[in-house]
Each structure stands twice: as C-alpha cells, then as structure tokens.
Specification:
Blueprint: H1 5-28, H2 41-58, H3 73-78, H4 84-93, H5 100-117, E1 126-129, E2 133-136, H6 137-159, H7 167-184, E3 201-206, E4 213-218, E5 221-224, E6 233-237, H8 239-246, H9 252-257, E7 261-264, H10 271-277
Parallel strand pairs: 3-6
Antiparallel strand pairs: 1-2, 3-4, 4-5, 6-7
C-alpha cells in the first residue's frame, strides 16, 4: 500500500482545499452555535487549530507549538482511541483562543506551513504519533483532511450551511492513514480494558476510490492480511459514509440503508467483533 507520487500530490492538494473550506465555514458560522454535544463552533475550530498546530511541529514547519504541551506529553504518548476525549480536553485548556477569524487564519497558516515544509519529503517518512504509534507523512496529511471533513460537517450542520465532502478527498483516510497505522505500528491506540471476543477474522475492504485491502484480527492484534487471504467478511464502502460512520456521525443502520456500506462474505456476522477492536474516537 505504498503511496505513489501522484497520490501524495493529491493528498497535499486536499490539505489546502479542505483546510480552506473548513476555515471559510468557521468564519461564516456563529461562534456560539452548538456544533457537537460538548463544543460550540468556536470550540470546534479551536480543536482543529490545535491539531494543525501540532502537525506543523511534527512536520518541522514550526519549531514549537503555539500552546504549551508539557503537562499532556505522557497523556499523548499513552492515549487510546477511547480516551482521546480526555487528551483533547487537556489540550483545549492550554489553547484559550476562541476568536473565529484568528482561528481560521491560524489554520490557513498552518496548512501553508505544512505544505511548504514537506515539498521534498518522502511521503512514507515515519513520524511518532498518538499512543506511541508510528504514522507516515502521507498518513498525517490524510488524517488532518479527515478532521476538516468531520468537524466541517459538524459546523455546517449547526449553522445550516452547505458542506459537500468529495469521495476522492475522503478515501485516503482509511487507505493511507488507518491501514498505514496498522502496517507501521498503532502502539497503544487500539488498547481497551473491555473484554474482546477471542476470534480470528479477516475483513476485506473495497471501494471504487481505493485499492482493495484486507485486515486480519488474531490474538487481539490487527495486521494487514497477506495477499490472497480468504476474507470472512467483505465491506464495500463509500469513503465519505464510511468515515462518518467510523466517527459516529452516521449510524451503521443508516449507512447500510443508504447503500454507503455493503457487507457480504461467507461469515459477515464476525464483523461486529472485528469493529470492537478496529475503531475510531466517537
């Protein structure tokens, strides 16, 4: 699943395009409008600004973040997808800015800095990331594009503004970011204290916007399955619907009824056990 130069250039363009779309939504929406259960539009924009600010540090575009992180460094290293909300709360307390214009300008500047700093960088360059995981440069870019999509949708829905996510922009989140994490090492991110079924299950993922890939869950560890491995379940998906479902914005039932997700294979009933391990923050 190497990233081609063409795909890397497309993801770089997506950072600029999706970042500008998000910044424009922040400027257009009422700052105090409730965007999620816990965050206003301004809070949501601040959250995304903390992510872009950390990303420019990771890409070495800026020498240090605009807010202080020493008190959450260990939390960053040990976090899991189920505890990212606690990390977000800690980071948000260190970032008091809530002016929409200032936040939009910061996000635009961060995107420009990321792109400028990585003009000659190998997209497969490994980077340290959340939960002691290893992420590639291309994966980092695909991740922030998805953040623009998910939280842009939150703001747009709150403000009654249009917000279309192009499937080609959404596709690299799973193919480049998530599969890349599984391949290169997801650290503690998928750890959970909850008991998980002792199953061995292979799930094939297919989309008209991505290359086919299969993931294997065995002994509570997820890895990329060897080519030719017979899948137990097969998921055919629209990248936009799939990403929204992974982050709890669309229910699995709605995703299935609208045709955004189709499940098949000889043992599709094993998919829920697989998804208890392979999950994203809600």
């Amino acid at each position: 699943m190497d990233v081609s130069s063409r795909q890397w250039e497309a993801i770089r363009r997506d950072v600029a395009t999706a970042g500008e779309r998000f910044a424009a939504l922040v400027e257009a929406a009422a700052a105090d409008r409730r965007a999620t259960k816990h965050w206003s539009v301004a809070d949501t924009a601040a959250h995304v600004a903390t992510l872009t600010d950390v990303d420019v540090v990771i890409t070495r575009a800026y020498p240090e973040p605009a807010f202080s992180l020493p008190e959450v460094h260990e939390q960053w290293r040990r976090t899991t997808v189920d505890r990212v909300d606690l990390l977000n709360d800690a980071v948000m307390r260190s970032f008091p800015e809530r002016n929409p214009g200032t936040l939009a300008a910061r996000i635009r500047a961060d995107c420009a800095a990321m792109l400028d700093a990585t003009r000659s960088v190998d997209p497969s360059s490994p980077l340290p990331w959340l939960g002691s995981s290893t992420l590639t440069m291309a994966g980092l870019f695909a991740h922030i594009v998805n953040e623009f999509h998910i939280h842009g949708r939150d703001i747009a829905r709150a403000a009654g503004l249009p917000h279309a996510i192009p499937p080609a922009e959404a596709a690299p989140f799973f193919e480049v970011f998530f599969v890349g994490l599984v391949r290169d090492g997801y650290g503690h991110l998928l750890d959970t204290p909850k008991p998980l079924p002792d199953v061995r299950v292979t799930v094939a993922f297919e989309s008209r916007h991505t290359r086919p890939v299969a993931l294997l869950l065995a002994d509570n560890v997820v890895r990329v399955a060897e080519p030719g491995t017979r899948p137990d379940a097969r998921v055919t998906y629209d990248p936009v619907v799939f990403n929204l479902m992974l982050f709890g914005r669309v229910s699995p039932v709605r995703a299935a009824l609208t045709g955004g997700i189709r499940v098949g294979g000889p043992r599709p009933w094993l998919l829920p056990a697989f998804m208890r391990k392979v999950r994203c923050p809600k």
